[in-house]
Amino acid sequence: QVQLVESGGGLVQAGGSLRLSCTASGRTFSNYIMGWFRQAPGKEREFVACIGWSASSKYADSVKGRFTISRDNAKNTVYLQMNSLKPEDTAVYYCAAKLITFPKWGSWGQGTQVTVSS
Hints:
- This protein has no helices and eleven strands.
- It has strands spanning about 5, 10-15, 20-25, 30-40, 45-50, 55-60, 65-70, 75-80, 90-100, 105-110, 110-115.
- Strand 4 (about 30-40) and strand 5 (about 45-50) form a beta hairpin.
């Protein structure tokens, strides 16, 4: 398993921006697809975005055009740039890693709180 540590959460007003970071250690970063998930109070955890080694990415429809996922393979770090934030984006955001050859997300960070005030 790879160890993941997130940072960058906080409180922001609607329309504002935040950038989350997640640094991985313990395994070869290039072997992993990296992703972001979020969980709002009373709701199930949901997919936000993911990115492969070659920077190919996917997004949930709810964040397309507002969020951008990127990775710096030299720093073993994945980022989530969040713009035009809405109150409904309020959640705990989790970084996750999945081996390219595995179907499931096997490693998770501890989560970072993002709160968007209206």
